[in-house]
Specification:
The chain is an all-alpha fold and about 300 residues long. The chain is about 70% helix and about 0% strand. The chain contains 14 helices and no strands. The protein is globular, with a radius of gyration of 21 Å.
Amino acid sequence: MTEVSPRPLPEGMERPGVARGLLTLVSHRYLLTLLVRKELRVRYQASVLGLAWSYVKPGAQFAVFFFVMGQFLQLSRSIPPYAIFLFSGIVVVNLFSEILGNATRSVVGNAPLVRKIFLPRQLFPLSTVLVALVHFLPQLVILVIGALVSGWRPDPAALGAALLGAVLVIVFALALGLLFGAVNVAFRDTENTVDLILMVAVWFSPVLYNIGLVRDHFGADSWLTRLYEANPLTIAVELFHRAFWYPAAEPGVRDGALIDHVMWRGVIALVVCMGLLWVGDRVFTRLSRNFAQEL
C-alpha cells in the first residue's frame, strides 16, 4: 500500500496534536496561567499558612545554617556580614531546587491531563518556573531589607548582577528540568537522581563558605577549582554575592579575583545555558510524542 500524505491545511490553521518548542508557548499564555493557579491551589489546599511557607521554609533553613556554620564553626567571623552572605546564596539555591525538582515531576504529576487532551507539554515544566518565582520574590524582599539594614546601597552594577544571576539560574534549572522531566516519564529513577543532585547542590556551591576556601585547598589553577567555578549555579550564587554582600563586606574578606570577573563569567555561563536550554527543548519535544502512551 502506498502511504497517503496528509492534505495541506488552509492558511492560518495548524495541525492539532503536533509537539512544538518553547517559543510557541507565547500563544498559550491563558493555559499557562491556569496551570500556575492550579499548582498553587493544590499545593496550599487545606494549608493554614498558605504562601507564608515561602517565608517559613527559607527562614528555618537560614537559622540552621547560620547557627551551625556561622556560630559553631565561626564562619561569621571570617565572612562578615555572614547573614547576608548566607541568605543571598540560599535564595539562589532554593530557586534552582524548586524549578528543577518540580519540572522533573511536572509531566508525571499531570498524567491525567497528558492522557486525556493535547496541549503543549512544555507548559508543565514552564509553569513550575512561574510558581517558583512566586516563592522567590518574598525571599528576595527579605534579602533586600536585610542588606539595606547592613548598609547596602543599590548601584547599577549590583542590580545588574542580581538580574543576571536570577536569569542564569532560571535558564539553567529549566534546561535541566526539561531534560530530566522528559526522561522521567520512561524512567522514574530520574526523580531520585535529581533529589541527590539537589541534596548536594548547597554544598557544591559557595553558599555556606567563601569560594576562596576551594581555591586555597585545591589550588587556584587546579582543574577541580576551574570545574567548580564553571558551575552555573556557583556563578549565580557569586553574582548574588556581588549584588548584595560585596558592597557591605569588609575589603579584607572579599574574594576580588572572582568578583572582578563574575559578570563576564555570568554572561558566558548564560550563553552556554541558553544552548543547553535549546538542547533540552529539542529532547523534550521529541520524547513528548510518546508521553501519553508511556503514562
